[in-house]
Design goal:
Number of strands: 7
Number of domains: 2
Oligomer: single chain
Strand content: 25-35%
Helix content: 10-25%
Largest sheet: 5 strands, antiparallel
Distance between the termini: 33 Å
Structural class: alpha+beta
Shape: elongated
Radius of gyration: 19 Å
Length: 126
């Protein structure tokens, strides 16, 4: 008997080749491209450097506080995939646009049409 399980819902310790679930289990990876900004499912995307824009008042906590460390992690530019609509919205003179309930900042290396267009095959490699 062979059982197919969705890879994303399996705990990390059970994803090994010799998993505790059993030798007849085959993991299939759920690789649906989804826009980082608006969460829509897409077939073609732009690979961009993007970060979430958040407000933080450093006077409320010090540089070693959990709040500041979380703020730094959340506002670091990361490589993500976004849909063409979100890319067009963020591809402006300052690179900032509100999408849904969040504001996003597009890095300069991804503006002005420099962002690579990828399909599902390139997404799997990414």
């Amino acid at each position: 008997m062979i059982i197919l399980l969705d890879y994303d819902f399996i705990p990390k310790y059970q994803r090994k080749a010799h998993s505790p679930i059993g030798p007849s289990v085959i993991f299939k990876r759920n690789l649906i491209m989804q826009c980082y900004a608006c969460d829509s499912k897409i077939s073609k995307a732009r690979k961009v450097k993007l970060r979430v824009v958040k407000n933080f008042d450093p006077r409320l906590s010090g540089p070693d506080s959990a709040a500041f460390i979380s703020y730094k992690e959340d506002t670091t530019f990361r490589w993500v995939v976004i849909c063409e609509e979100c890319y067009c919205a963020n591809n402006n003179h300052c690179g900032v646009e509100a999408i849904g309930f969040n504001s996003f900042n597009l890095d300069g290396v991804s503006r002005a049409g420099k962002a690579t267009i990828i399909d599902e095959a390139k997404y799997v490699e990414f």
